[in-house]
């Protein structure tokens, strides 16, 4: 059993450079596409985390060669992928296989579509919490394509996928209101369908469309025809053999959020190198969101993003921030003035019900918050917040949210902070190294936010 991690208080103004690992979303997309490619692929600077290791293991189980042991001369991870061999028409069924999805949404949702290309029964299961993550649209889509599905009638893990000669592609319709991953899951494997695939979204809303554009861009970069329909509610992928070549993975801009938020709470500057000038990552929104909360944000020609804050972030009304919302909500919880985050109802179906979890933890530490139909409202009262155990719910973004709140509220202890290894191994070391760059405040009573009063360095 692990002990709760005592979240450090702000030690003063920061002057830090934080080197972040590769994007989880991009790493797992590149891994899967490399497994379906026509030639070996190398990934430079992929994320090495639980989620990406689970993806690598799943693809190995299906027959791909994935070597995660390499490094570049500069010490960055260098992974090599040898494609799996797809069966010829009429091939006999092989022995059943088992895939452990852990709690990785990209594994439990992306890999079943690869299994549908095979002639082998593949059973999918994962952590206990994984059995609460919605899977219905993926299961229904694979049935529409002609795959045999055993189990999953309730729309959740576990279930078994068996492909056959009827799985050829064409056009299908799904409701992806719960997650854009349902669309990406089908598009990533679509190039290896003889007829390609068109996916139509039938729901009223579509969360995180940036992730679908990311999927399309990864496909196009590998030479696969992929586009969005004129109505913005359908996507088509042509039949082709992907050729990704050598891929350099962008740093994870979503995981940059907690570190950049620290600049606003503590004051001072935090820099992130290798920030792409153009990207499909939703984390690009930090360049718009943080200035609205009082920060100065600059992207230099050398790709270093610098965020400078005063130590007094202000509240914000923001919509459609997707996976950034837990980090943004934590920053709002220690800001001056109320905030509303909307357009994020789909977060109820992530690693945990993130909206309920955020409200529960804010309330636990004395920060006024409530759920909205599609988001959260946060109204911090200066001096009202207090220390308590912050539950992480086996959710990496809830754990890092607790670290942000802990910068301003004395006595925050984060339960199971190790869950951050899901997408950011070594988080606490990176966090503490960033805080070690601080210049202590010149006088006692320094207040980095409206949530709580603190004194001197490390008080």
Topology of helices and strands:
Elements: E1 5-6, E2 14-17, H1 24-35, E3 41-44, H2 50-62, E4 65-71, E5 77-82, E6 97-100, H3 105-115, E7 122-125, H4 136-145, E8 148-151, E9 159-162, E10 170-174, H5 181-190, E11 197-201, H6 209-221, E12 226-228, E13 234-237, E14 246-248, H7 253-266, E15 268-272, H8 286-292, E16 296-299, E17 305-309, E18 317-319, H9 325-333, E19 339-342, H10 354-364, E20 368-372, E21 375-379, E22 388-390, H11 396-408, E23 412-414, H12 427-435
Helix pairs in contact: 1-2, 1-3, 1-6, 2-3, 3-5, 5-6, 7-11, 9-10, 9-11
Summary?
With 459 residues, the protein is of the alpha/beta class. 29% of the residues lie in helices and 21% in strands.
What does this protein look like?
By secondary structure, the chain is an alpha/beta fold. The chain has 2 domains: 5-20 and 251-435, Enolpyruvate transferase domain (UDP-n-acetylglucosamine1-carboxyvinyl-transferase, Chain, Alpha-beta prism), CATH 3.65.10; 24-248, UDP-n-acetylglucosamine1-carboxyvinyl-transferase, Chain (Alpha-beta prism). Helices cover 29% and strands 21% of the residues. It contains 12 helices and 23 strands. It has helices at 24-35, 50-62, 105-115, 136-145, 181-190, 209-221, 253-266, 286-292, 325-333, 354-364, 396-408, 427-435, and strands spanning 5-6, 14-17, 41-44, 65-71, 77-82, 97-100, 122-125, 148-151, 159-162, 170-174, 197-201, 226-228, 234-237, 246-248, 268-272, 296-299, 305-309, 317-319, 339-342, 368-372, 375-379, 388-390, 412-414. The strands form 6 sheets. It has a 4-stranded mixed sheet, with helices on one face. Strands 4-5-3-14 form a 4-stranded mixed sheet, covered by helices on one side. A hairpin with a 2-residue loop joins β20 (368-372) and β21. α1 (24-35) packs parallel to α2 and α2 runs parallel beside α3 (105-115). The longest helix is centred in the middle third of the chain and has 14 residues, at 253-266. The protein is globular, with a radius of gyration of 22 Å.
